Here is the input.
Amino acid sequence: MNTHTHGGSLAPGGVVGDGRYRLLAQFGIDARGGAHLWRARDGQLRRDVALTILVGNPADPEAARQGRRTLERATHMAKLAHPSVAKVLDVLTLGNGISSGEGLLGIIVSEWTKGSDLIDLVNEKRIAPTTAARMVQALAEPVERAHQSGLVLGIDHPQRLRVTPDGRLRLAFPGALPNATLRNDVKALGSVLYLLLTGRWALPGGPPALPTAPRTPTGELVPPHELEPSVPRELSKLAVRIVSDGEQGGIRTSSAIVRMLGNVIAAEERKRRPAENVDPDGTVWTTKKPVKDARRRRRLALGVSALVIAAVAVLAWVGMMAISFFQDDTPSGPAVNLAEETVTNEQKDDAQSDGSGGDGDSVGAAIAPTEITVYNPEGEGDGVAEAVNAVDGDEATTWRTDQYQEQFPAFKSGVGLIASFDEPVELARVDIVAASPGTQVEIRVADSAQPALSETQTVAAGTLEGERTELTLDSPVSTQYVVVWITGLSGQAPEFQSQIAELAFLSTK
Here is the structure.
């Protein structure tokens, strides 16, 4: 026999939603909106789901109004598809799955998120600072995508978040408060970062069992590095700036958070690079693994082959001269110029494949950028957290644009990636590995890391065909910032989207 529950008596084993959902375990309460967070069993589809149950008196006009507002927001969120946000499956309202006598204002049904509770995770162990930065950086992407559509995610309560088995933060219990704003989402990103670094929550309305972040006598947050000395100062300052409401130094957009976290992560990774040791005689010893460069090995093999061929030719000529000396005083045969370099057809083919064509400056090895970010001067996005996939050396990982219903430039003129180098490089060619036929690409150079499009200069262009496309500059250009700018997307209406698996920036020899 089913045991129907009421708002004040939600308990494991009870059922809600006209008896369809049996309550299994409670995972928290967001007291600010009367939201009880439960794991439940869908009796019809025989699967676990997450329930955000709004408890309140339907006869109270103000409570009913706020409940409707939260349910409306959840209904709009059903259109948002992102791996870091649990998909909204259903929204139950009074008269539609909920009776007036249950003491409930509504229920938001979403897919269940496997993994662990965020608070359990931080109570069990402190997260490494760079890991915490990456987790928040990835969570900022769905925030930005939602904000572009005018949606508020409502991530400003730690019990609404769970950590997936692969270590990703996920909004597991959707249902933004009726008065929540875009700014609340941004501040929440800072508070989540603060929580991962210190185990303390930096915003009001957190769960009673979770310690609140300490503040100075003037009301300012105590920086995380003062509580946990292992936290890098730049990351510590960033967490405070995101939560801060002050006009000076405050961070107000999730795209800025993604960019700044990326800078901090890159700086920390540079610090951890293996150090090089120099002997007094000038010999350099390094702990770095040798780089596997197939092109360089091939050139070395060709060079050795050329020397062998030249040596054989010289020996043959010497032999012929000796024979001629003993047989006839008059030399015969074609003249041989020993100063002329012997070039094999294979070497010529290799030179042509490098884009040098045998004339001018030849192309050297690829140079890895120190940073790569999404370049989108006309908006925010696309795939900001995955930008690094384009230069990680793994063709199985990709950076993708958002999916558009219309081809560029209907929505905007383009989108791309901007690569930054520690110092200017002599750029000669850009190689693009991508399974996005028809994508139109321009290679542009700039004088800064955040230029306006009008401040960049096009130095090469082409259309991606096949798995690998080489865009060779007419002549090498010295630059510190390179933009790979997509002006035409792959696909056809109503689904236009492009991807880049790997980028290689080649300089002159």
